[in-house]
Design goal:
With 76 residues, the protein is mainly α. The protein has one domain. It is found in: Mitochondrion. Belongs to the CMC family.
C-alpha cells in the first residue's frame, strides 16, 4: 500500500510519475494485471522512498537542534 498520492503532498517529479501510472492503469484495464504498468510503479516507489528519506533527514536535524536548545535551557 502506498502513502496518500494527493498532488499537494509530493514533488512535481513524483506527481508526473503518479499521473503516468494512473493513466496507464486507466488505459489498460486488464493488461495492468499482467504487469504492463510495473515499470511506472517501481519508479513511483523509488520516488516516494526518496521523498520520505529526505523528510526523515530534515526531521532528524530539527529534533537534534531542539534537543540542544532544551539542554542549554536546562543548564541555565
Amino acid at each position: 500500500m502506498h502513502t496518500d498520492l494527493s498532488p499537494h503532498l509530493h514533488s512535481t517529479e513524483c506527481n508526473l510519475i503518479i499521473e503516468d501510472l494512473k493513466k496507464c492503469h486507466s488505459e489498460n484495464k486488464f493488461a495492468k494485471f499482467l504487469g504492463i504498468c510495473n515499470d511506472l510503479d517501481r519508479q513511483m516507489i523509488v520516488c516516494l522512498r526518496n521523498e520520505r528519506k529526505t523528510r526523515q533527514k530534515l526531521n532528524r536535524e530539527k529534533a537534534l537542534e531542539k534537543q540542544k536548545r532544551v539542554q542549554q535551557l536546562m543548564r541555565e
